[in-house]
Amino acid sequence: MRPSVPSLVDLLADWLPTQRWFAGKDRPIREIGIGAVTTLLSGDPGLHHLVLDVRQDGRPDQYQLLLGLRRSLPERMRPGELGWLALDAGTRGGTGTYKDAAHAFDAVHDPELARCLLTHMADEAVIGPLRFRHVPGAELDTGLLPAVSTAEQSNTSLIFGDAYICKLFRKLSPGVNLDLEMNLALAKCGCAHVPGVYGWVELRTGGKGVTTLALLSEYLRAGVDGWELAVASVRDWFAQPRQADAAAAVGEFAAAAGGDFAAEAERLGEATATVHRDLARAFGRAELPPERVRAMAARMHGQLDRVRATVPEIEPYVKVISAAFAPLAEWSRPLPVQRVHGDYHLGQVMRTGAGWVLLDFEGEPARSAHERREPSHPLRDVAGMLRSFEYAARFPHTSEPSTPAAAEQGLERRARAWAERTRAAFCRGYASAGGPDPAAHTTLLRALEFDKAVYEVRYEAANRPSWLPVPLRSLAHLTE
């Protein structure tokens, strides 16, 4: 008797929690349903677009998967393998035999299969419920083969030569994706700080409803990731002789042989303010009534309570965090709001020869689609970037093996010095380019920064537990 082979649901139950983009690593999977299935290529190899309904608690979350099937899988595609799939077992359960089985794998790792995203966008193909689109006038080079980006992110990006980057939105939300909507609007405004948009893929969900599946944009081949630049700066600063600690105490280490990020941070602040101005032009401004601000404070407290219940490491900081939220709970005047980036940090920006470019306008992945679409005060993005500087300052020594206490104290002093100088430069650049001056809104900014810090603790505990010490160490400093 031949051994049995798992069904697709069986394979997915084991494979999904191992993926960087899967958002529910902190909870067991209770049920997986196979929703819309669209065959893009039949035979061997085969390619199928799947929408997965993954239930953990409450309503199911939807994810998309380009499922490849090959009876012989090349070694270079092994990183995306789910396992042997019994083609005669169905997708919803049961097992089959090796009589009819194939390697099931994430087809983003197969250039010949994944290139269909580009060719179908060029042709504006319609395949079942899938609609492939390109911007008017765009002429796409369909001869390019894709490679999977190795960048740390909650989606998957395919890089086509040195021309395009196609982002697959792994966790799906109904409607037009914010990244597509906001990039198209900013491009129409002539904003110089966002990449060009070439095309997109959408799923028709019945009637006139759509869900954005992918976004094709300009690939910034000469760009350098902001996180990489900042962490390199921190490492250079940590490598300075101990005598530099005296300068660090007063934040005057710019004359040291390396490790200063202030000039770049100031330019990044200026670019951020410019994008905020263009977002206001594209989508308008509004005022949040005082009662809505107070409701926002209640949501901040609610998130803190939920995180306390699941991440006990945050408990020593709860009192100070709650005190930072208190002024918003008593807010008595309207608060100006507009569209903002919503998940702003160093991993969402790139430094190019022409300046800083902002990416990924989807909002925070752990927030609901409704929360991500809500207008907010521009200082929410400022708070996000300030938090990212705190991350970068502590990431190098937090990720190292255990360090003696005395040495750890010295590293923390340097981390604080780098963060303080960089934060000040960013805020200075932001205000000089017309953004709301952070120095004039310290109460609001402090509440927004702590709310972001609580979100980070929640996110890291669920998605990257090994990173949890990074936001906790900065909280220890900010709550002193």
Automatic annotation (TrEMBL):
Which top-rank group of organisms is this from? Bacteria
Q: Looking at the Swiss-Prot or TrEMBL record, what is one Pfam family this protein matches?
A: APH
Keyword Amino-acid biosynthesis among UniProt keywords: no
| Phosphoprotein among keywords | no
Q: What class of enzyme is it?
A: transferase
Q: Where is the Maltokinase N-terminal cap domain?
A: 15-92
Subunit-structure text: Monomer.
Q: What is this protein called?
A: Maltokinase
Q: What is the lineage of its organism?
A: Bacteria, Bacillati, Actinomycetota, Actinomycetes, Streptosporangiales
